[in-house]
Amino acid sequence: MAGLAQKSFVSLSLPEFDSGHCSPLSGKLGFLKVPAAFGIGRGFEVRSGFQAPIKAMESSRTPSYVVSNKLDNFHELDQPGCNPNPDDNVPVNSCKDTLKTSNVGNSTNILWHKCSVEKVDRQELLQQKGCVIWITGLSGSGKSTLACALCQGLHARGKLTYVLDGDNVRHGLNRDLSFKSEDRAENIRRIGEVAKLFADAGVICIACLISPYRKDRDACRDLLPEGAFIEVFMDVPLQICEARDPKGLYKLARAGKIKGFTGIDDPYEPPLNSEIVLQPNDGPGGSPKELAEIVISFLDKNGYLQA
Ligand SMILES: Nc1ncnc2c1ncn2[C@@H]1O[C@H](COP(=O)(O)OS(=O)(=O)O)[C@@H](OP(=O)(O)O)[C@H]1O
Ligand SMILES: Nc1ncnc2c1ncn2[C@@H]1O[C@H](COP(=O)(O)OP(=O)(O)O)[C@@H](O)[C@H]1O
């Protein structure tokens, strides 16, 4: 039996879902806010797939002075090419005769370039809304399995997805990171940034990693436009994860052969306000496919599966 705790704007009402953890629809994000977060209502006409590329070419003939690294935070600039970083607290360099550059972190004198083909155009092409589905939970809770089932379910509906699995990303981009808390934080930050790029590409990006710290997950949420970060909590008790132990890692951690293993001698902070809470308990009704359908229903009901 799978349990779905309804948070925010989850609006599934199937009787078989345990809603013991449900809070009433709080309107924290609110369904009506979702389209705005994706750029709808910013004056873009509804166009057919054939018209979209023409519009992009036409607008590319005129210079664009609209810059932002957040879709809901656009700035009109009065000086062509003068391009401050949209973050208010970022120092902006002189802009008298040259392009205005910014300093961000250790990167100095950088300029935000904007392209006339935007997220909204890509979404229209793909007929979906780019977003991040962030699956968090203990090792063995079923994150990777759900991610794969979701990917299959959405692919079958003609939706473009990409999975960023913590284990896999640690084989390449994040191979320099350990499981110390600061390295886990960096792992999550980098995956959050990459997921943001996928979402901006219009892709439904499925990130599945333990991501044990609330602060780090919330920081990833803050990278994205409101409504574009959907947190899915695999609320599976440690005893079940440990009984599954498909890689034998819990056994090694209990034997003291792996130090700092999440849930054993390293913390896991469960989400307080995730969009979806899944509570599969290895019984009937909690198969990966059924769990994936719960998430897909959420996406469908909240408008993510159309442009
Ligand atoms: N110390 C320790 N703690 C937890 N997990 C460990 C550890 N060492 C190795 N592993 C294996 O690494 C996988 C978790 O990687 P993540 O990138 O998802 O972790 S984290 O988000 O940075 O905490 C995790 O994979 P999953 O089982 O898929 O979660 C483990 O197989
Ligand atoms: N919904 C489920 N019901 C029962 N077993 C599951 C479910 N999802 C995954 N599993 C099993 O649990 C184990 C851990 O799954 P996995 O997806 O690797 O978890 P994680 O990525 O969180 O470590 C695997 O043996 C998998 O077959």
Look at the structure and give the mean pLDDT: 77
Element pattern in H and E = EHHEEEEHEHEHHEHEHHEH
For the sheet with most strands, the description reads:
6 strands, mixed
CATH class membership of the largest domain: Alpha Beta
Catalytic activity: adenosine 5'-phosphosulfate + ATP = 3'-phosphoadenylyl sulfate + ADP + H(+)
Pfam families: APS_kinase (PF01583)
Pathway: Sulfur metabolism; hydrogen sulfide biosynthesis; sulfite from sulfate: step 2/3
Protein name: Adenylyl-sulfate kinase
What does this structure look like?
It is a single chain. With 307 residues, this protein is an alpha/beta fold. It contains ten helices and ten strands. It has a six-stranded mixed sheet with strand order 1-10-9-6-8-7, with helices on both faces. A two-stranded antiparallel ribbon has the order 2-3. A two-stranded antiparallel ribbon has the order 4-5. β2 and β3 form a beta hairpin. Adenosine-5'-diphosphate binds next to α4 and α10. Catalyzes the synthesis of activated sulfate.
Task: Lay out the secondary structure.
Elements: E1 4-6, H1 33-37, H2 51-60, E2 66-67, E3 75-76, E4 102-104, E5 107-110, H3 119-126, E6 131-136, H4 143-156, E7 161-165, H5 166-169, H6 181-200, E8 204-208, H7 214-223, E9 229-234, H8 238-244, H9 249-254, E10 276-278, H10 288-301
Parallel strand pairs: 6-8, 6-9, 7-8, 9-10
Antiparallel strand pairs: 1-10, 2-3, 4-5
3'-phosphate-adenosine-5'-phosphate sulfate binds next to helix 4, helix 5 and helix 6.
